[in-house]
# Entry
Amino acid sequence: MNRHQLELFKVVAEKKNFSHASEILHISQPAISQQIQILEEELGVKLFQRTTRKVSLTDEGKLLYHYAIQICNLFADAEKNLSEFSKVVRGSLTIGASQTIGEYFLPKFIGGFKELYPQVQITIQIFNTQHIAKAVHEQTLDIGLVEGQVDGEDLNIIPFLDDELLVIVHPSHPLAGQKTVDLEQFSLFPFVLREKGSGTRQVMEDALTKAGWDPENLSVVMELGSTEAVKSAVEANLGISVLSARSVQKELQLKTLKALRIADIKFMRKFYIVTSSKKYSSPSMEHFLKYIQTEKEVNIENI
# Structure
């Protein structure tokens, strides 16, 4: 019996499903089944009752699971403490980021972090906010960085950056010469928006609702799955939109887009770190979380 076998066993026991464990561990289902079978043969006991849809622990399995938690935690503590002695942080991280963070914020964070900890291997996955929250809950992601507030059992949710959304228009648009627009004017024009479920769209809709305006009354002519696609559509003068100030800095400098604000309404949001309260926090994970929480946001240029 070794640590690798115990960790596989622990995940299968918690997920009660070999295929879910396979997704979390990034190991094929047959390989997990083989290791569990070897473990059962070594111990001379049956650890799981298997059905076509799920597995459940036998009495012997429940006893081993109790010890597996303690043993895996001891290994984790040893690695953490030894890494502090050596001052070398190693390991791997799988980070999920919603689109605005992944495209416009995360590269800067990753670049700075890799300079400090070059031996940490990082994998980035880009999804919308709800998908990331689900993946963190299922422990297929180590860390989620999302644009909107999420709720979920067993999730730790920590705010770490503020972001403002701006109204963006084509330079020839009737609103382009204004610094601000009132809500009545804003609602008269066709809109190009991110898909439902994106943090950007949710923040806009929440702010409009709070101001007493039903977002369903907006004339949405197109829904697109990425910020870049939305910007391209606005540059083609297909409609106006609401996007992160950070995401349109280059276009504002090149004057291919114009930005303005709505009078008396601010589309403000926080970015959140999402982690699972049930997942072991490795040294690489702890150092990355500490790093991004101490980084200061670059100021957005005045518009």
DSSP finds eleven helices and twelve strands in the chain. The first strand starts at residue 48 and ends at 50. Confidence is low (pLDDT under 50) at residues 297-303.
